[in-house]
Design brief:
Helix content is about 35%, strand content about 20%. The chain is an alpha+beta fold.
């Protein structure tokens, strides 16, 4: 017989009481784990549907973000092309020379149309003008600071689109030297460049070009002054990525949007077109260009109504 001290009896009783219930709980947990049921097909299907919906939402968000970034990049690129073209034309127009006679009868001081402008400019000399040449190298080709510059919209006169609109090839810049060439354009063999004339395709993306001229009082789409300072005070330049239509080429749109009522163009939103207004510093501040232009129009009207025979009386 084993005698247990009186002080140890509570611990032994506690150990004896707790050992059996703990073992029972362990057995019940083991039976519960062995009998747990698996996921049903419906639960798996619902889980896959939720995951697919979440992934689809994320992919749609990223796809829309990429599209927005692409459109923003294209818009910025188009804005840069239009701004560069407008700034190039405006900078050369600011250097236009406003004199009555330049001593070169083959040059045009200033003549403006709706789709074309020709003017005489005097840019700063190039770096070649300040270069040193050896005596044995020979004298360089003579150059003049005056240049005749033309900006126009190239339109194919023979081809048309399926809608009947003209085929536009872009904005072309032509530069001609002031000095008379030794050989004419007809004497230059085909395939060789003209040293005294240069043609550049400034922008093939732009399919619209328009000029409007301000004489100090009113706007017009044509400009030609034969006497005095021939420069207008302001020139509005409009370029666009949408191509020129047949009505715009034939000036039919001016019947819908008269220039006396809409001097700066149609009052409708056209996000594909960009405009700027350039002031010509060399223009006469006393509006002599307007006076000479109106005088030229009066002479044209007089010549139109003048009788063919000198002995015939004037028209009624």
């Amino acid at each position: 017989m084993i005698c247990v001290p009186r002080a140890w009896r509570p611990c032994a009783l506690w150990w004896g009481r707790s050992a059996v219930p703990g073992a029972a709980r362990t057995e019940r947990a083991a039976r519960a784990e062995g009998g747990r049921r698996a996921m049903t097909l419906l639960e798996v299907t619902i889980s896959l549907a939720l995951v697919s919906l979440l992934l689809g939402s994320l992919l749609t968000f990223f796809w829309q973000t990429l599209q927005i970034r692409d459109r923003a990049a294209q818009t910025v690129a188009r804005n840069q092309v239009a701004q560069r073209m407008l700034e190039q034309i405006a900078s050369e127009l600011r250097d236009a020379v406003g004199v009555a006679q330049v001593g070169f009868p083959n040059l045009t001081v200033f003549r403006g149309e709706r789709r074309k402008v020709t003017f005489l400019t005097a840019p700063l000399p190039t770096a070649e003008a300040y270069a040193f040449y050896q005596a044995s190298a020979g004298a360089p080709v003579l150059k003049h600071d005056l240049r005749e510059v033309t900006y126009q919209l190239w339109v194919d006169p023979e081809k048309e689109t399926e809608d009947g609109n003209p085929v536009v090839g872009g904005i072309v810049r032509t530069e001609r030297q002031a000095l008379d060439p030794i050989e004419t354009e007809a004497d230059v063999p085909e395939g060789e460049d003209l040293l005294w004339m240069r043609h550049d395709l400034c922008s093939y993306e732009l399919g619209y070009l328009e000029f409007r001229y301000f004489d100090g009082v009113e706007w017009t789409t044509t400009w030609e002054v034969q006497a005095g300072n021939p420069l207008p005070h302001l020139v509005q330049i409009t370029v666009g990525f949408d191509s020129l239509t047949r009505d715009e080429l034939d000036d039919v749109d001016l019947e819908k949007w008269p220039i006396d009522q809409y001097p700066l163009g149609p009052e409708e939103e056209r996000p594909e077109r960009y405009s700027t207004i350039v002031r010509l510093p060399a223009a006469d501040e006393f509006f002599s260009a307007r006076w000479n232009r109106l005088l030229g129009e009066t002479e044209e009207v007089y010549e139109f109504g003048k009788p063919a025979d000198e002995g015939t009386e004037g028209l009624p």
